[in-house]
Amino acid sequence: MPIQPVDKIWMDGKLVDWEDATVHVLTHALHYGTGVFEGIRAYETPKGPGVFRLTDHMKRLFRSAQVYMIDIPFSLEEMVQGAKDTVRASGLNACYVRPIVYRGYGEMGLNPLNAPINVAIGVWPWGTYLGDDCLENGARLIISSWRRPDPNVLPTGAKATGQYINSGLAKVEAIKGGYDDALMLSPEGTMAEGSGENLFIIRDTTLITPPESAGILMGVTRHSVIKIANDLGYEVLERKFVRSDIYTADEAFLTGTAAEVTPIREVDDRPIGSGSRGPVTKEIQQTYFSAVKGGLEQYADWVELVD
Predict the structure, then answer these.
(1) Does 152 map to a domain?
(2) Which domain holds residue 76?
């Protein structure tokens, strides 16, 4: 999806003009993928732009950085404020927010420890990740031939830039095959997650989602949906399941900052349930969208207002 430029990007503590937010071609992260990042959304609310679970996302950024021995040269509070400042400077009521911490220019080679650390936060308008039709009617997916890496090969619990080349392989395979996206298996062959989303299936109104031990990223949206589902009276189980379980599910959906709550209507050319968005998915989806836009008091602390 093309990026639409805005006025400013936050780089190393300062707002700079969009066209000046550049890095050297010999930046370490460009060559070795040595960076960590987050995907966050700001939504239009009755009180102005509100960033959904901003602090929780930034906390995960710091956890990812710790795994990769990257010392972020700003505090959590400074990163949160930097995101708010960037959203404010954009003049946008709703946008995607991308903080990134990366090894910069000055060192080359596999040892990253001497490379400088740079930080940036960009925002831009970004609509529905898989398209409005998928939000309404569900996405068509395949189970990719590419699997998620073993957590002892790459730390799947960290959101690192280089690791997403694995997701890109799965996404391209799906798009080339005429599908909207891909699901990926864990190294042991159980279901893991989408190319950039967490996975839920529903059976007899019980939600089932793969656990952390399946090699998934512990999504902030995933956590939000579990809370919402429990509050609506649904049981949620975190356990491993196999591909035939999703083929025979009553409903299924994806969650993620970009994908939000996207129903799944088909996997590997097999319709899921009725082949359209199911009633439980619809209820959770509608509650989620009300929550992120500041419409539900019980989730008000999830929405961090820019002003």
Answers:
(1) yes
(2) 8-124
Q: Is 227 an annotated catalytic residue?
A: no
- One-letter amino acid for residue 306 of the chain: V
- Report long-range pairs for 168-174 (Cβ below 8 Å, ≥24 apart): 168/195, 169/144, 170/144, 170/146, 170/195, 171/195, 171/196, 173/142, 173/144, 173/145, 173/146, 174/141, 174/142, 174/144
Q: Which two tokens stand for residue 122?
A: 């960009």
- The distance from CA 268 to its chain's CA centroid, rounded to whole angstroms, is 23
Distance from C-alpha of 278 to C-alpha of 289, rounded to nearest angstrom: 16
Check: CB of residue 17 under 8 Å from CB of residue 5: no
The half-sphere exposure of 172 on its side-chain side, counting CA atoms within 13 A, is 7
In tens, the pLDDT along 3-40 reads 999 999 999 999 999 999 999 999 999 999 999 999 99
Our count of domains for the chain comes to: 2
Residue 92 has which token pair?
A: 């946008």
Within a domain: residue 298? no
Among candidate residues 90, 124, 158, the one where a domain is terminated = 124
Q: Which of 159, 240, 282, 293 is catalytic?
A: 159
Claim to verify: residue 155 and residue 286 sit in the same structural domain: yes
For residue 165, pLDDT beyond 80: yes
